[in-house]
Amino acid sequence: MPDTCGFILHAHTRPGKAEAFEAMFRAYVEPSRAEPGCIEYHMLRDQQDPNLFIFFEVWTSAEDLAVHMALPHMQHFHAQRMEYLSQDLVVRPIEMLSHASATAIPR
């Protein structure tokens, strides 16, 4: 899947901000999955560090990701992200080497 645009993002929240951050982003998961071009959108929480959230996203193209990032709620979050985070977001681009999910594999 070489034309896709994917990344893993680490968001480390400030003490006392994890619950608010989780509530805010939980509300974004399903609408994001419904957006054109979204292949995968997952929000994870580290079991050893409850202030660490990990996002796994794969989009059909960089253009689809750009549309997602330009949505008002994403712009609002990015403008105020440091109110929630102890350090800025760490984003690692990835290349998909397998099918999008186990359910996408033909049986």
TrEMBL record:
Keywords: Monooxygenase, Oxidoreductase. It comes from the Bacteria. Residues 5-96 form the ABM domain. InterPro entries: ABM_dom (IPR007138), AI-2_Isomerase_LsrG (IPR050744), Dimeric_a/b-barrel (IPR011008). One of its GO terms (molecular function) is monooxygenase activity. Coiled coil: none annotated. It holds the Pfam family ABM. PANTHER family: ABM DOMAIN-CONTAINING PROTEIN, QUINOL MONOOXYGENASE YGIN-RELATED. This is Antibiotic biosynthesis monooxygenase.
